[in-house]
């Protein structure tokens, strides 16, 4: 079993800027919450007792700021890429993502 669990939930707002043709760019901003939990198993050291054992968890709210681009492959298919910086206390980090879009 994994001893470390992390989760991240965000909601972002995009503003599409058409560049003409098949590419749109967008700035993005949003809010999110991040969490982590750690479970440390205990180890029996025989005649010396046990060591370890316990758990801890923490969560922080964060702000997302970034930019992305949508590349239209056809009327219904597309590819998107984005980079955003999540600002959240000690857990600030850069996130790079890619996706496939199907419009129906």
Radius of gyration: 21 Å
Helix content: under 10%
- Give me the number of helical elements: 0
Structural class: mainly beta
Q: Which oligomeric state applies?
A: single chain
Secondary-structure element order, as H and E?
A: EEEEEE
Taken from the alpha-carbon principal axes, the silhouette is elongated
Strand content: over 45%
What is the arithmetic mean of pLDDT? Answer: 90
Q: How many strands, which pairing sense, and closed or not: the largest β-sheet?
A: 6 strands, antiparallel
> Could you list the spans in which at least 5 consecutive residues all have pLDDT below 50?
none
Instruction: Give the beta-strand count.
Output: 6
Ends apart, CA distance between termini: 40 Å
Describe the structure using short key phrases.
6-stranded antiparallel β-sheet; mainly beta; 104 residues
Report what the structure shows.
It is a single chain. By secondary structure, this protein is mostly beta strands. It is built from no helices and 6 strands. The chain is elongated.
């Amino acid at each position: 079993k994994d001893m470390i669990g992390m989760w991240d939930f965000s909601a972002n707002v995009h503003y599409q800027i058409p560049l003409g043709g098949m590419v749109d760019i967008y700035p993005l901003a949003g809010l999110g919450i991040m969490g982590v939990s750690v479970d440390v198993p205990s180890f029996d050291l025989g005649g010396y007792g046990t060591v370890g054992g316990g758990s801890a968890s923490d969560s922080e709210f964060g702000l997302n700021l970034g930019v992305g681009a949508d590349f239209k492959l056809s009327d219904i298919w597309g590819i998107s890429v984005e980079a955003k910086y999540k600002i959240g206390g000690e857990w600030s980090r850069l996130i790079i993502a890619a996706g496939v879009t199907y419009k129906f």
